[in-house]
Backbone:
């Protein structure tokens, strides 16, 4: 499949989807707290997307998935499955990965939520992963390469003593959740696909406290670190503009 270059009308629709998804995370800032179950978070997001935003939770039903988000706690790298029995504890860190479709176009984003008694080691991993994502985003412009993005993320993560998960990557996005290209979070600057204005894709590094190796649990979804050490992830949907980039899922607290 070729990389889909979005025209001005399609970009406007993607902006709307991205803004609505940012609104979901704004709502969650006051809702996510210790003691709540990940299934309660899932159900709240489902209701908010459908009835407040008049949009569609795009993850529900995709590849047979039965929920509207992934909830990945502590050593869970990605694809954590919401459950009523899974309640957030005071030392947890949790990634909530959510997708939303409006008017035929999909936005994808994830955010780390850090509970009140999370230790400094966990907080440092979360911050470094966020900074690494932004180091990757800032490389985006016409003429840059996908390798520039991956190299920037890998350089920062490894300089802090962490490892980059290589089995999972960012992806093109638009009318489909997963389009070309694949966006690796490691690599060599100056290599790979050359970016062009109108491309849209996610940047979503998963950074491990320990070794990069992962395994999938028996449920067929939940991916964990093999050494049981912490993992963190952040994600945004990005547009390549004429002069650089636009973060389509930018949240209020990230606006300068």
Residues:
């Amino acid at each position: 499949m070729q990389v889909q270059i979005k025209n001005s009308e399609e970009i406007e629709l993607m902006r709307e989807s991205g803004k609505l998804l940012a609104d979901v995370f704004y709502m969650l800032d006051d809702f996510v707290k210790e003691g709540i179950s990940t299934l309660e978070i899932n159900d709240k997001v489902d209701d908010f997307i459908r009835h407040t935003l008049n949009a569609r939770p795009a993850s529900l039903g995709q590849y047979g998935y039965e929920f509207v988000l992934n909830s990945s706690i502590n050593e869970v790298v990605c694809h954590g499955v919401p459950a009523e029995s899974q309640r957030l504890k005071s030392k947890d860190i949790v990634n909530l990965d959510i997708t939303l479709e409006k008017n035929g176009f999909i936005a994808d984003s994830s955010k780390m939520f850090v509970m009140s008694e999370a230790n400094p080691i966990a907080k440092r991993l979360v911050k470094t992963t966020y900074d690494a994502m932004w180091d990757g985003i800032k490389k985006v412009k016409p003429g840059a390469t996908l390798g520039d993005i991956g190299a920037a993320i890998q350089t920062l993560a490894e300089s802090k003593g962490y490892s980059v998960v290589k089995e999972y990557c960012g992806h093109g996005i638009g009318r489909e959740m997963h389009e070309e290209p694949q966006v690796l979070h490691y690599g060599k600057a100056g290599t790979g696909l050359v970016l062009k204005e109108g491309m849209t894709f996610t940047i979503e590094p998963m950074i491990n406290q320990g070794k990069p190796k992962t395994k999938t649990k028996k449920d067929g979804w939940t991916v964990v670190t093999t050494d049981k050490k912490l993992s963190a992830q952040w994600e945004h949907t990005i547009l390549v503009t004429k002069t650089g980039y636009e973060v389509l899922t930018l949240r209020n607290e990230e606006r300068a």
